[in-house]
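**User:** I keep going back and forth on a fold encoding question. It is easy to fool oneself when nobody else works the same problem. Could you pick a protein and write out its sequence and tokenised fold? Could you put it straight underneath, so I can go through it closely?

**Assistant:**
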Amino acid sequence: MKFAPLAAVLLLPIATSFGDDADFGRYGIYEQSAPRAETVEAVTTSLPLEFQKGDRIAFVGNTLFDRARHFGHVEAAVQQKFPEQQLVFRNLAWSADEIGTQPRPANFADVEQHLRHERADVILAAFGFNESFAGDEGLPAFRKELTEYVGGLKTKAFNGKTAPRIVLVSPIANENVEGVPAADLNNERIATYTAVMKEVAAEQGVGFVDVFRPT
């Protein structure tokens, strides 16, 4: 028997028991029922971040962080630098997410509801690469959407007490590889979107990390 049919047979009882047991519903985070954070006064985020013991750090945004979940380099580096802080990380990023386009399954809770569920104290948000394909014509919309997005996040008490500290993370640079001149095609656009992210971060009083130029 091939592996795929065998796996399907082995997993069928598990899938059936999950579907039939209403108790498993309590583990879901649903848009229609998940609580939302209360609105509070925003705080200014300065760099370098200063962590409090037990801080809960959430990654949101696009593929930059979504793929990072497979390796753990960021989390390991931060934990190594702050070994006594007992920090907690949660990765809520989805590949291909844009600020204004975040498709999810029906009744799937949105990012703010997940941030509330995870009681986020610190939010690292990676955007800008997917949006950059709109070119110069897309810059005004990107600036507006990013401003509104950050403005919404920074006034929510996801941890149940205080507003989060927020850091925007730019896209990384592309490189030319054999057959794909990605750097030549994309980096000029990415640079302009990175510049807008830096400006919005300053205007909104949140942190900004430029990983475009070093890469």
